[in-house]
Amino acid sequence: MNIGEASKASKVSAKMIRYYEQIGLIPPADRTESGYRTYTQADIHRLHFIRRARDLGFSVAEITNLLGLWNDKSRQSADVKRLAQQHIAELDRRIESMLQMTETLKALIHCCAGDERPDCPILQTLEQPDTSEDEPEERTGAVPRRSHGTRTAKRSR
Predict the structure, then answer these.
(1) CA 18 to chain centre
(2) Bias regions of kind Basic residues — which residues (predicted)?
């Protein structure tokens, strides 16, 4: 089947299929004589696996590990369980971080009159320098992400 059909069957966009091939999550597709990609049912099955893992919030690096375990018939289920438990711990950290952001914003909103005056405690707080003594974290979004070695992964779906 071509990439459009594979996309429809797997519910993964053609753009993401090409991206997954580029980064090695799926093997390079076979090509027709005219250069079009062709996919098998095994490829669709792998794309379903990747899609489900992405829906559960696993990073590309974690999915790489999961695919390795999925393909290793001599694996121990304890290895898969450990990876899932680590992912839950990371999700819990991210949830806690988001809850802290929510509480901070609620407090700032409570302090803001929200009227026609230009004074705004929300903006005044945002303009203040960070006085914490913690080392600066590399941040790519609203929630700090942990690094995955030398590879960085986009959270695209």
Answers:
(1) 17
(2) 145-157
Give pLDDT tens digits for 107-116: 999 999 888 8
- Contacts of residues 4-12 at CB distance under 8 Å and 24 or more positions apart, as own/partner, are 5/39, 6/37, 6/39, 6/43, 6/44, 6/47, 9/44, 10/44, 10/47, 10/48, 10/51, 11/48, 11/51, 12/47, 12/50, 12/51
* 89, 82 Cβ separation under 8 angstroms: no
Whole-model pTM?
Answer: 0.72
Would you state the structure tokens that stand for residue 86, as one six-digit string? Answer: 């680590």
- Mean pLDDT, rounded, of the chain: 87
Q: In sequence order, which residues have a C-beta less than 8 Å from that of residue 16 and are 6 or more positions away? A: 156, 157
Q: Are the beta carbons of 91 and 57 closer than 8 angstroms?
A: yes
Q: Which helix (H) or strand (E) holds 85?
A: helix 77-111
